[in-house]
Amino acid sequence: MISRRSFLATTAAATTAIAGHPLFSVAHADDGFLEITAGPTSKKLYHEDAKASDLWLYNGNTPGPEIRVTVGERVKVRLTNNLEEPTSIHWHGIRIANAMDGVSGLTQEPVQPGETFEYDFVVPDAGTYWYHAHNKSWNQVARGLYGPLIVDEATPAFDPEHDLTLVIDDWRLQKDGSLDVASLGHLMDWSHGGRFGNYLTVNGKSRPNFELKEGQAYRLRLINAANARIFSIAPESFGALVLAYDGQPLPTPEKPAYSPLLLSPAQRMDLLVTPERDFAFEELSGDTPYPFAFFKVQGRQDTKKAFLPLVPNPIPEPDLTNARTYTIDMTGGAMGRMVETVYNGKVLTGEDFPRTGQLWAFNGVANLAEDPFFKIKRGESVILEVLNDTSFPHAMHVHGHHFRVIEREGATIDDGRPWRDTFAIGPSQSVRIAFVADNPGKWLFHCHMLEHAAAGMNTWFEVV
Ligand code: C2O
Ligand code: CU
Predict the structure, then answer these.
(1) How far apart are alpha carbons 438 and 95 in whole angstroms?
(2) Does the C-beta of 226 come closer than 6 Å to ligand 1?
(3) 384: CA distance to ligand 2 center in Å?
(4) What is the pLDDT of residues 387-446, one digit of tens each?
């Protein structure tokens, strides 16, 4: 029924029009907590005649419910675990209190099946964020445990009708149209580019149509929830400007600096689109462009709805002259150079690699070591120098902080050095990022290609 390339082939475009927020309602308990349950759900991802998939979802929906709050507000979520394995929720991109960061085994004990955990935190920054499982993420996120977290400006910059969230994922389906669960954890994916899907969805639907009004300004919030796929898109082809990366606004809306623009796993991009005619988002990384979301543009309205400029969030500027520099050499993977690698205090040899699934390393250490990669005093500036000594691109994420990419390949970046929480690094590239370590606690630094993280590309630092 579907082939490896079928997401490039086609299914009839889904015809549901989506206007305004693709919201599912979340029940608020009397104590003000949003109830979010992670559990198994059987759902047809592919068309009606296909076999249903065994998904793991939040509140039975893909994506999970859009959590929408105003900057400075408290978010209170009660997670109930109805899965057969432990889980936790990470609030990706939120400069959060460490105990609420949701990293199983580092910032909290994983929530056991049948148990609950209460998350309660303040959102310091407006923008586009998301939440996802952070225990065996390669498994749990691939099965659907993620959702959007949108933080509105004190006065929302766009009204709901002109503000759309697009959560993009690629699923790996079998020939019968159901999620390929058996291939989860394949070492072939772990040692190469990660798990790629063959079926693209936006807000859980294949090739949805959105209806827009001609000449009106829209904010499109893209969230890449895929395990490993880097989306290549060309928003300039329909005149879009970039409003924000990873939740943080650019000083002014800008023409994309490159074409195509890359949206790596976990990254977000807010676009400003004022459509004059129909357009589509196309994934450009394959042999032929694959349109995955369609925008039908209808009748002009007389009055153009105004929107407010986005104001910068209060992220402290790193002090580059007094910063401490730490270097990470990334090694391993297929066609890569494997240096002597230590895992759980033991040097890995031969059979240990497939047996432990540890195939990548940072500075010769696979996965979390007992001691932090570095420990730093609160308020100090950090420069992380990352060398990708592998044959694959990676999407590197810092927890609890946003950073500026200050250098690529030894060349200073002069595109305004946007704030990010996840940066892409190409094979053999070097990148330097800088941030103020102003958030006390234990924070992960890992590849967001979730198979790579599980297979060794995972470390942590401590701010004291
Ligand atoms: Cu979105 Cu540690 O990840
Ligand atoms: Cu990676």
Answers:
(1) 10
(2) no
(3) 17
(4) 999 999 999 999 999 999 999 887 777 667 899 999 999 999 999 999 999 999 999 999
